[in-house]
Amino acid sequence: MQLSWSEAPSVVAVPDVPLEEPVLVFTIALAVFLVGPLVVRRLGQPGIVGVVLLGAILGPGGTGLVAHSDAIVLLGEVGLIYLLFTVGLELDLRQFSEDPSSAALFGLVSFGLPFVVGTIAVIGLLGLDPLAGLLLAAVFASHTLLAYPIVNQYDITGNRAVTAVFGGILFTDTLALFVLALVRSAAETGLTAGVVVGKIVSLAVLLGGVWFVVPPVARRFFRNFSEESYFEFLFVAAVFFGAASLATLLDVAPILGAFVAGLALNRLIPQGGTLLSRIEFAGNAFFVPFFLLHVGMLVDATVVFRGRRTLEVAAVIVGVMVALKWLAAWLVTRVKGYTADERGVMFGLSIGQAAAALAITLIGYDVGLFDAAILNAVVLMLLVTAVASPWVTKRAGQRLALAEDVEPGDGAPTDPRILLPISHTADRQRQLLELALLFKGDERERPIHTLTVVRPDRSGDPDRAVDEAYDDLEELTAAGSEAEVPVTSEIRVDHNPASGIVRGALEVQADLLLLGWDAQRSLGQRLFGSVIDQVLERTTDPVMVARLGHPVNTTGRLFVVLPDGIDHHEGFFESVALLKRLADRLGAPLIVLAVGGSAHQYERLFALVEPELDAEFRELHSWEALHSTLEDEATADDLVSVISSRPGSVGWHDQLRELPYRLAALPPGSFLLLHPREDDPEYDRQFLRFK
């Protein structure tokens, strides 16, 4: 039996609208994640706006092309938890710890004024019930640092007012999320004294459980599984989803648990490392966009045109927020004695709204406290602040940068060229790469150069040795790509490895040589061993010799040992800049031990070098006092660094010859010996903050 053309089945099935077929929906979602941000960024708006707008267009409130399915809701909730985790993870706790009083003052005033006055305003002007009014005020009382790239561009991130804003976000976001947890429970059971006390107890249990349990467990995990890259990511994901689950069991919003987990892991996942890059990549490419798509599909664009309600709500919350955020900045300026330009930067930074505001609004909508008009109004608020916050910050920030008396030196390399010689027989190569990544600048344009020198007289089969070396270097190249840092690799065949390393440094114009050391003595060696000693003799570039007994991201404190007279060395300030950058990236407290020198003098010299960091300075009168101090105080999570000149140079002491072996016997098992640049005093002046 044959079918006629009219009876034949259709080759191409026409899908029904709205689309629910998983593959088609997923494909459209990925296209939205790609196209949305690219389009709106050309219009000067943050990428999140594009995904939300396209979600609104494609969702039930727009064209109705794509169904708001259970899968999108699930992934949206996962993305929301992921988003709040990254907010906690990326908060600058060091900025807060440097001036906690200013951060607390700004955070409490910047949240308290908009929250208290805003609650009264939205209840009176919009006719909301008290719980909805409290939650809506919490939405715009928080802030997101949308304009951070601008203050970073003008190099005013170390300004006292900017630091206060950065630290203050810890208070604004935490308080906003606590209000969310309180109001959410009150909406379900009523607002009573028992509800308030219960929420405070639940919050204390959540904070205590996560804050005191997660860091030691994470340190132990990273120490034992640092080479298993994807296990690190899975561990982190398990931690923050576990914290979110704990919050759910305590009847607290799960996003608060994820936020607290981000704070707990903050200092164990340093900026610039491969793990943070993986976390950001997975979030920015997949999880967070699904949350934004979910929010967009909840938006009903027709609500804007059916009446004035959405526009009225948007006008009230934007007007109240802007007025009260300006008043908060003015009050803090009066109390702390800031300038008008500093006030303008504080105001511009604090009116930015994105992640926290959107997260709180969505939960308020889900529990029935907010209607579609409020949800749409908050989206409009995001659009307004996405334009206003960068504009205000840029105007005030430019004036503030021009008025600064202290500026970074001209031409100081913020993205150094690093040469990383790798021995095929050495272990912990990946840890050396992670250490190198911490010295890279934010722009990360210059590559890290990895180099292996194969000795034909000892390799047996040179061709096989070269192939094995390439395999090792390819793994490091892949790890660098994950951290979005270019890594170039080279194999050299040379009878003298030191010569190959030094020639490689000259060819790539390296600013820093980073070598690993296994702490093993060899026959006839003078300091580290024949290869490292020869490198030190043949190059004047800075050479850092590292022995890493633990993953660098688990570092608790960074000790810096300064031999007497090292401050007169021509490469001293460059060395200080490198170690301060390391402490900054690790978020580790800096303890400076001056052996035979003046602690006050070194404190003054350290203050001349970026970045600004609080540090503890101590005077030690002998090398034995140094060893006793480190033996008594150094723990397994500390990292000891020494600015050590080359033998015979300024600041050299014979005790430095045995120091590496004394350090290797300490509990940390991890130390850095930084040998400063030689014979170029003019180069060192670049690192001074005073012109």
Shape: globular
Strands of the widest sheet, in order across it, are 3-2-1-4-5-10-9-6-7-8
- Helix count, DSSP H or I runs of 4 or more residues: 26
User: How is the biggest beta sheet arranged?
Assistant: 10 strands, mixed
User: What is the total tally of β strands?
Assistant: 10
Please state the CA-atom Rg, rounded to the nearest Å. Answer: 28 Å
| N→C terminal distance | 93 Å
Query: How much strand content do the residues show?
Result: 5-15%
Q: Segments where pLDDT lies below 50 for 5+ residues?
A: 1-6, 405-412, 521-525
- Structure class: alpha/beta
What is the overall pLDDT average? 82
Bin the helical content: 55-70%
Task: Please describe the structure with a list of short key phrases separated by commas or semicolons.
691 residues, alpha/beta, 10-stranded mixed sheet, 8% strand, disordered N terminus, Cation:proton antiporter, membrane, antiporter activity, transport
